[in-house]
Amino acid sequence: MCGIVGFTGINRASDILINGLQSLEYRGYDSAGIALVQDDKTQVIKTTGKVEDLRNKVAATADTYGTCGIGHTRWATHGGVTEVNAHPHQTPKVTLVHNGIIENYKEIAAELAKKGYTPVSETDTEIAALLIDSLYNGDPFEAMKKADEILEGAYGFCIMFQDRPGKIYCMRNASPLVVAHTPIGSYIGSDVIALIPYSKDYFVVPEQHIVVLEKGSVSLYTMDHEKVEPKMLHVDWDTTAAKKGGYDYFMQKEIYDQPEAVKNTLAPRIHDGKVDFSADKISDDLFKDVNRVIITACGTAMHSGLVGRSIIESLIRIPVTVEIASEFRYMNPIMDEHTLVIVITQSGETADSLAALRLANERGAKTISIVNVKGSSIARESDYVLYTHAGPEIAVASTKAFTVQCCGMYLITLKLAEVMGILSDKEISEYIDKFIAATETIPAVLEMDDYIKTIAEKIKDTYSAFYIGRGLDYAFACEGSLKLKEISYVNSEAFNAGELKHGTISLVTEGVPIIAVATQDHIFSKTLANVEEVKARGAHVILITDEDAAGYEGLYDDLIKVPKTDDFFGGFGTTVAMQLLAYHTTVYRGYNVDQPRNLAKSVTVE
Ligand code: F6R
Fold first, then answer.
1. pLDDT tens-digit profile of 48-74?
2. CA dist., res. 92 & res. 236, Å (int)
């Protein structure tokens, strides 16, 4: 949610900043801007629209030779999409970019107004800039510390003080910032994707810390100006992983990345027919004396939690609840030391999921997170972390991250089964074989791409669609529906198959697509009975199943027959089929698959 970058060094900053912003554009794409420092002059160039528009504007601007600068790509929160509201924001003493939300900006603005400070934009960020300006008396650390004491909310700032040319001061509370240094200069960004063209070694700025970027060094400090050693991390994927690699869209590439992502996530954790978390340093003790599981997450990640609930309850027979992270904190949830709280997140920075984790930690629950981004806040603050190895996910709509999150849920479930003595070693080994076999069906579904495209063409003009399934199929149907809705803008909802007739079936009219997911043998005929109900109302039924659908021909218009797997692991093929359906429908409708309106990839505000 908003991307920020900074560079100071020996090369021209504008190119580095704009390339960095382009790689961060998934975080926000309604406006963008940069500020460049040359000698003691600061030049701000900003525009509404895409980073490409900014690139053109910079190219048309004279004297953009500065070697120090900051940049921002915006996802509007406070104030509309206008050039004035775009970052960087400038005051006489400071120029800054911000990622996050200042919750008490109105109170601060009122105080500043008494001192004669008048903002020109409608943003919370400009208020922060004015506040820091008002607190600055020549000592950046003093001004930032004082500002930190006043500001409430989430922020990552990159600040250039007018009288300190060549230096970038950054401070972090919640919103992520990562830093790298090379002989060319010092780099900062919201995500390591902005840094990897220059360095694979980086560090994550810890919360409540300040970083100073200079041409020849980066220095990390506490808010009290004590110097600390950064904890260096290494990126284990290369720059090609963050490029489209010949695909039309990142989403398409990421759908095709799934066999590899699954392999990378499973291979290090499966040894000798058992789940082995020793390399992750996840102790078996975590899974002992657990009498209840709470899974909390947002959006797609929450859907992998629904998968988790279904499989843990059916195999382990302990109660599992799935809580939407934005609600969790306000429900006064019941937790104790026997509760295992699992937080699932691709970015590791989702503000609501982080808040849910903090509450679970506070209440003494055992916590483990399933996270894709190394060193992210949620990874750092949970008792244990199970990293998924999807590589960078750039399309706003999550695909490969979901699949590996589900893998994480299966691994944890099988580990619970082992530690709690629910399955014998032999049974676990058999489950693992079926698990791997299920994931290995993904390439066969990818080969159905052209066929699924023909189905997408048939539904491309629909206004609404419904996804139905029972049990585990319902969990996957929820994700299928979200995929279609968020990128194609088709008004799509998922329902438990038996629930439609309690109200929603009134919306099923001639030609409305119903995507029915049916992989569970024991309830296949029940789901098909519900299909019959919608077919009778003229629905266009797309049946996605791994079962033998012979004899049901009259009930569906299109059949996506994915390879047969064990029911317990039944969602991998159906998921990929639904991702492809959403993708092609969106392409037919002419929308930008990777950057759907109003959405940002990493939601770092509550
Ligand atoms: C949808 C999507 C979102 C995210 C959600 C949580 O395709 O990507 O629903 O799943 O915003 O994000 P993370 O997983 O980063 O916590």
1. 999 999 999 999 998 888 999 999 999
2. 42
Is the per-residue pLDDT at 240 higher than 90?
Answer: no
Residue 239 pLDDT grade (very low, low, confident, very high; cuts 50, 70, 90): confident
Spatial distance between the Cα atoms of 159 and 95, rounded to a whole number of angstroms: 6
Residue 435: its H or E element: helix 425-439
Q: How far is the CA of 300 from the centre of ligand 1 (A)?
A: 5
State if residue 298 touches ligand 1 by the CB under 6 angstroms criterion: yes
Question: How big is the CA angle at 428 (ends 425 and 433), to the nearest 5 degrees?
Answer: 130
Residue 574 Cβ < 6 Å to ligand 1: no
Sheet containing 491-496: order of strands: 491-496, 464-469, 513-518, 540-545, 558-561
Q: Compute the Cα dihedral for 364, 368, 369, 374 and give only its sign.
A: positive
Q: Token pair of 585, please?
A: 């429908």
Measured in whole angstroms, the distance separating CA 185 from the mean position of its chain's CA atoms is 29
Spatial contact of 186 and 214, defined as CB atoms under 8 Å apart: yes
Atom of ligand 1 nearest to the CA of 399: 7
* Backbone angle region of 383, left / alpha / beta, with phi > 0 → left and psi within -120 to 50 → alpha: alpha
The mean pLDDT of 356-361, rounded to a whole number, is 97
Euclidean distance between CA atoms 19 and 215, whole angstroms: 19
CA of 446 to the centre of ligand 1 (A): 23
DSSP line for 339-379: EEEEEEESSS--HHHHHHHHHHHHTT-EEEEEESSTT-HHH
pLDDT at 28 (0 to 100) = 83
Tell me, what amino acid is at 214?
E
* Both tokens assigned to 59: 């190219």
Q: What is the pLDDT of residues 565-595, one digit of tens each?
A: 999 999 999 999 999 999 999 999 999 999 8
- In the three-class reduction of DSSP (H, G, I as helix; E, B as strand; rest coil), residue 183 is classed as coil
Q: Which residue has the tokens 């600390």?
A: 228
DSSP three-state, residue 569 = helix
pLDDT in tens, 442-475: 999 999 999 999 999 999 999 999 999 999 999 9
Confidence of residue 242 (pLDDT cuts 50, 70, 90): confident
Instruction: List alpha helices for 223-370, DSSP H.
Output: 250-256, 258-266, 299-316, 325-328, 351-362
| Measured CA distances, 514 to 35, 368, 497, 544, 558 (Å) | 50, 36, 10, 10, 10
Phi, psi of 192 (to 5 degrees): -60, -20
Range from 21-25, 214-218, 426-430 carrying the lowest mean pLDDT: 21-25
Average pLDDT, the chain: 95
Residues 6 or more apart from 551 whose CB is under 8 A from it?
none
Burial class (CB in 10 A: 0-12, 13-18, 19+), 551: exposed
User: What's the rounded Cα separation, in Å, for the pair 426 and 432?
Assistant: 10
Instruction: From the CA of 297, give the closest atom in ligand 1.
Output: 16
Q: Which atom of ligand 1 is nearest to the CA of 396?
A: 8
263 has catalytic annotation: no
Which residue is associated with the tokens 């429908």?
585
Span 77-86, pLDDT tens digits: 888 999 999 9
Does the pLDDT at position 17 exceed 80? yes
- Maximum alpha-carbon separation in the chain: 81
Q: In what order do the strands lie in the sheet with 384-387?
A: 320-324, 292-297, 339-345, 366-371, 384-387
